[in-house]
Design a protein that fits this description.
By secondary structure, this protein is of the alpha/beta class. The protein contains 10 helices and 9 strands.
Length: 284
């Protein structure tokens, strides 16, 4: 992007996955408020329609595309469908994600693979599909949503942390490649902390977990989800607008990043103490 090519969200077109609920639905509204037209993607068709209706209230054009980001053929066909309706894409937000509870030895191999196919595979698949479309623009932005668990890796989250660290590593390496090649595409990596969404309560669970253990674990995580999706969406949209390379969403994400840098090996004992205090203060 040259100084003569100003970057603005207004009038652009964003493809947004995981748009039917949580951060995705809130981000659809926030991007629409900032003047972006939208192609919303999610496997939940009913939720997608509701999110689209809220976004259209801002007076922008919104299309919906009900598909699973783990479906190779559906993703490969998506750029043509989006371009037929919108003619261009200036921002791709890979936000779709699922969760899986249980320690590594408790989690079935097929469940681990299911999560990786969505959280990491979906990000790679959508990026591969839309990179040539983004490259047509004088300036464009690829936005990949990782997690606070792409910075720190808690016990009981081997699959989820693996996928979010993979998103981070993929995105950083791709950014360096694009910069070296003089590409107009910037890369933003987003690390949300505890945002009040249903991802933890909707998580797939290891089959060997007992009901009491599941209930306690879900209650603990719910007590840590303090930021509203709309607030997270505003932070993310601001980061996209600034073409930030990294966006930390919430004080918990910023704090975790600092502790991890200070204690790269032993950070978990420091983080675990803080989490225990927060859970005691804010029982679900």
């Amino acid at each position: 992007m040259t100084p003569s090519t100003p970057w603005t969200l207004r009038g652009g077109v964003a493809v947004l996955t995981g748009a039917a609920s949580g951060i995705g639905a809130a981000l659809a509204v926030e991007l629409a408020r900032r003047g972006m037209h939208l192609a919303l993607v999610d496997v939940d068709a009913a939720g997608l329609d509701a999110a689209a209706a809220h976004a259209r209230a801002a007076g922008v054009t919104v299309s919906t595309h009900a598909l699973d980001v783990a479906d190779h053929a559906a993703v490969a066909a998506l750029p043509a469908a989006v371009l037929a309706l919108h003619q261009r894409v200036t921002v791709l937000v890979n936000n779709a994600g699922v969760a899986l509870g249980g320690r590594f030895e408790q989690v079935a191999a097929e469940d681990f693979d299911w999560l990786m196919a969505i959280n990491f595979g979906g990000t790679v698949r959508l990026t591969r599909a839309f990179l040539p479309v983004l490259a047509r623009e004088p300036a464009a932005q690829l936005v990949n949503v990782s997690s606070i668990f792409g910075i720190i890796a808690p016990p009981g989250q081997t699959a989820y942390a693996a996928s979010k660290f993979a998103v981070r590593g993929f995105s950083e390496s791709l950014r360096h490649e694009l910069e070296m090649g003089g590409s107009p595409i910037g890369v933003t990596i987003v690390h949300p902390g505890g945002v009040r969404t249903a991802i933890s309560t909707n998580a797939r669970l290891a089959r060997s977990l007992d009901a009491g253990e599941v209930a306690q674990e879900q209650a603990n995580w719910r007590s840590l989800l303090v930021m509203e999706p709309a607030q997270a969406a505003a932070i993310i949209a601001g980061g996209i607008e600034r073409r930030s390379k990294r966006v930390l969403v919430g004080n918990d994400a910023r704090g975790a990043a600092i502790v991890q840098r200070l204690f790269p090996v032993s950070y978990w004992k420091h983080v675990a103490r803080d989490l225990a205090r927060r859970i005691r203060r804010n029982p679900a």
